């Protein structure tokens, strides 16, 4: 585990003395450089969905020590450390980009690559590359990007709701499903309640990963244990919904409140773990070597303390010296260079939105309930009805403005509308033009329906004067805007109108087009451009 030639001069040998010292120095430098990412993780771990996060580094360390037992101490030279330095450069570049853009999740991603780089530098490529399982496991401590989280959670909520209703129908409990709202007649399971069991998806995914790593058997067995986590969690949440419905139908509301609170706890997690053990037991029964479940899982933990002491055997190397000095110098430089402050532009609050917009009369509809406001997480928002004499149906205007969108997901009606029971019958980007400025842009045009009710929806994202129909393009504009002018503000604009029973889409579209042009004239006061 050393690559120090005996021909080095005394000066060079002095700089490369004590490999453990350089390892600890590199770790300390990384702690400073990646601290923004660590701080972001500490905040995310306070959320119920990611409360398992603090356990992930501990479990990864245990996986590493278990695997280290199979690697003998190498007292000879190691000549393939430099791939680790290359990975370190990538890790530093990723962390630096995250700090520059003030997107601290990216800094945390770079930290995981740094861990992999240090293992490659310490053990060399031939040995270090086999330690990928504990490094990959660190991914489970990361919060999902906002857009991915909202999309995934909404999809899984829908699946859980559908299955829960199916189970209730099997036991003859009257139930009606509207989006993610499960109507039991005298009691409704709202979206948030229906999805609460899904907060255990992430720890179950981590547990199934460890399960697959520890399992000694065919690769397809490992793969099955790994990918079964999500279906098991969704299944158990559906069972929770079905039991709640059964209790309401037979015992009333008083009983279900206590049950819901109890079953939202670790009961789901423990049940999922037991199902994973049962699945592993079934897989063991299918094997020809007739081993027991305990032997197949390889739960041996003896000697981990001895392996931890091997940190004192880390040999000095130019690669480790490079890692320590590179990250250390960058960490100090970042402390010395003044941070670029986020620029907050002057704007008028939506409370000053005019009561008339062109020929339209604007009537504010008040505020959302606190639960919706928490999910929306907007710094300012407007909900208003636009009406005009002679126009049969009003146009609902919704605008949400975010002072700093860099740390959150871009909200999309594609996520929230199905959750409220609306079915998206058609969704396409279309070209539009701001007739006042002549600027062309794209917006999303959707037709949604709930039973016999139909609505036409326009929505787009406002990014400092740029309008787009794509939330990914909006995120890109946000990043570029941060680099160009230090701004992180963003907004989403939505116009909705109901279509009468005999009304054509063209008629409703003309109504939206007219109101949109009048709104675009007023919008810059409240959603500033460049």
TrEMBL record:
GO annotations of cellular component type: plasma membrane
GO terms, molecular function: peptidase activity
Keyword Amino-acid biosynthesis: no
Residue intervals of the Methanolan biosynthesis EpsI domain: 323-526
Record field: transmembrane: 12-35, 82-101, 106-125, 131-152, 159-177, 197-216, 223-246, 266-286
Topological type in the membrane: Multi-pass membrane protein
InterPro entries linked: EpsH-like (IPR013426), Exo/Archaeosortase_dom (IPR026392), Exosortase (IPR019127), ExosortD_VPLPA (IPR026491), Methanolan_biosynth_EpsI (IPR014263)
Keywords: Cell membrane, Hydrolase, Membrane, Protease, Transmembrane, Transmembrane helix
Protein name per Swiss-Prot or TrEMBL: Exosortase D, VPLPA-CTERM-specific
GO biological processes: proteolysis
Location within or outside the cell: Cell membrane
Domain of life: Bacteria
């Amino acid at each position: 585990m050393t690559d120090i030639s005996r021909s080095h001069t005394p000066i060079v040998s002095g700089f490369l003395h004590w490999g453990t010292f350089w390892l600890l120095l590199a770790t300390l430098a990384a702690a400073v450089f990646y601290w923004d990412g660590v701080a972001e993780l500490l905040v995310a771990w306070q959320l119920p969905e990611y409360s398992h996060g603090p356990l992930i580094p501990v479990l990864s360390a245990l996986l590493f020590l278990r695997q280290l037992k199979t690697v003998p101490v190498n007292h000879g030279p190691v000549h393939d450390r430099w791939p680790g330095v290359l990975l370190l450069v990538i890790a530093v570049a990723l962390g630096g980009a995250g700090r520059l853009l003030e997107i601290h999740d990216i800094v945390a991603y770079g930290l995981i690559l740094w861990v992999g780089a240090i293992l490659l530098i310490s053990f060399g490529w031939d040995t270090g590359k086999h330690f990928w399982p504990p490094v990959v496991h660190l991914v489970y401590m990361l919060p999902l990007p906002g857009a991915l989280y909202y999309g995934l959670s909404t999809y899984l909520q829908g699946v859980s709701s559908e299955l829960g209703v199916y189970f209730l129908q099997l036991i003859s409990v009257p139930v009606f499903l509207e989006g993610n709202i499960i109507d039991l007649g005298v009691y409704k399971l709202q979206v948030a309640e229906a999805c609460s069991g899904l907060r255990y998806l992430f720890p179950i995914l981590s547990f199934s990963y460890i399960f697959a790593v520890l399992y000694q058997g065919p690769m397809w067995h490992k793969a099955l244990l790994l990918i079964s986590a999500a279906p098991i969690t969704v299944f158990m949440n559906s069972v929770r919904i079905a039991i709640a419905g059964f209790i309401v139908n037979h015992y009333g509301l008083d009983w279900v409140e206590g049950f819901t609170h109890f079953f939202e706890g670790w009961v789901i997690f423990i049940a999922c773990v037991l199902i994973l053990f049962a699945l592993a037991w079934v897989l063991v029964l299918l094997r020809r070597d007739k081993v027991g479940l305990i032997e197949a899982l390889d739960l041996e933990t003896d000697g981990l303390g001895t392996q931890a002491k091997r940190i004192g055997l880390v040999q000095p190397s130019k690669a480790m010296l490079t890692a320590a000095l590179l990250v250390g110098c960058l960490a100090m430089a970042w402390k010395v260079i003044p941070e670029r402050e986020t620029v907050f532009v002057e704007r008028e609050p939506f409370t000053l939105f005019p009561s008339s917009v062109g020929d339209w009369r604007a009537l504010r509809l008040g505020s959302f309930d606190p639960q919706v406001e928490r999910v929306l997480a907007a710094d300012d928002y407007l909900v208003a009805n636009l009406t005009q004499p002679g126009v049969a149906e009003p146009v609902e205007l919704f605008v949400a403005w975010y002072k700093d969108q860099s740390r959150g997901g871009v909200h999309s009606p594609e996520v929230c509308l199905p959750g409220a029971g609306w079915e998206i019958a058609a969704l396409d980007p279309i070209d539009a033009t701001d007739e006042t400025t002549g600027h062309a842009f794209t917006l999303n045009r959707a037709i949604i329906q709930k039973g016999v009710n139909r609505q036409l929806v326009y929505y787009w994202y406002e990014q400092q004067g740029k309008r787009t129909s794509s939330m990914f393009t909006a995120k890109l504009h946000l990043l570029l805007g941060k680099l160009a002018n230090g701004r992180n503000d963003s907004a989403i604009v939505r116009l909705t109108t109901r279509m009468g029973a005999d009304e054509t889409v063209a008629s409703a579209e003309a109504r939206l087009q007219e109101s949109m042009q009048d709104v675009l004239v007023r919008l810059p006061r409240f959603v500033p451009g460049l």
